[in-house]
């Protein structure tokens, strides 16, 4: 019986020791985990700085998106302006071409007008030769059909050009040319030629007036720019 008390006492002693050791170990761990006020202040400052940085990043992101939208609008506006400037440059080049300031080259047609080779006896000769009205009709039809530039016997026409008949010769901007009269036009020949040959059109009218007409498609026509004095005098 006494032996049982001894064993029980030893068990209780060991158990007490284990409880005491566990308590001490837990206390030391808690003490080691204790954060000082300075550490708390430092951690709070760091967290506050992180929160502030995140807020600033969000604001900067919003500003970036806003700037990107502005840049997009500016790019669209510049694109529109670029197209406007491109159209203006195209128009200027066309006007310079029309007034003869620049050389022009391209496909086109060549229309040759000749006096009638035979005049019946007793007929008025003037009814069988080319007059300025015939040349005007051809030139107008060519321009209406989209010709970019026109010349008569190599004399390039401008917006101030004049043509008149003086007997068997035609005067173009002060320069006289005898028959045959070669009217050259730069433009799409697939449009110009059908417009001249339309039924009841200019070719039929010229034939009715006893004028000999020939039309030829040209793959390359070049017209030099008009000299300043030519444009001024015309």
TrEMBL record:
Tree of life domain: Bacteria
A Pfam family of the record is DUF881
Q: Which InterPro entries match?
A: DUF881 (IPR010273)
The record, for Gene3D superfamilies, names:
Protein of unknown function DUF881
Question: Coiled-coil regions in this chain?
Answer: 57-84
Q: Which UniProt keywords apply?
A: Coiled coil
Instruction: Return the similarity comment.
Output: Belongs to the UPF0749 family.
- The molecule here is called DUF881 domain-containing protein
Q: What is the lineage of its organism?
A: Bacteria, Bacillati, Bacillota, Bacilli, Bacillales
């Amino acid at each position: 019986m006494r032996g049982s008390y001894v064993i029980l006492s030893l068990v209780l002693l060991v158990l007490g020791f284990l409880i005491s050791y566990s308590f001490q170990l837990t206390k030391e761990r808690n003490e080691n985990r204790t954060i000082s006020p300075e550490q708390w202040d430092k951690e709070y400052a760091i967290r506050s700085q992180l929160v502030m940085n995140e807020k600033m990043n969000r604001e900067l992101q919003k500003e970036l998106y806003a700037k990107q939208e502005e840049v997009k609008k500016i790019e669209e506006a510049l694109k529109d302006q670029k197209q406007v400037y491109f159209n203006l440059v195209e128009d200027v080049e066309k006007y310079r071409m029309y007034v003869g300031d620049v050389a022009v080259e391209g496909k086109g047609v060549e229309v040759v007008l000749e006096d009638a080779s035979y005049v019946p006896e007793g007929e008025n000769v003037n009814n069988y030769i080319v007059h300025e009205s015939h040349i005007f009709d051809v030139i107008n039809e060519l321009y209406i059909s989209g010709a970019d530039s026109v010349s008569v016997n190599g004399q390039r026409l401008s917006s101030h050009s004049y043509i008149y008949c003086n007997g068997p010769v035609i005067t173009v901007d002060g320069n006289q040319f005898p028959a045959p009269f070669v009217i050259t036009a730069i433009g799409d020949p697939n449009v110009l030629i059908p417009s001249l040959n339309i039924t009841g059109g200019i070719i039929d009218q010229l034939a009715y007036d006893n004028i000999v007409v020939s039309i030829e498609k040209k793959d390359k026509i070049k017209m030099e720019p008009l000299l300043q004095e030519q444009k001024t005098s015309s």
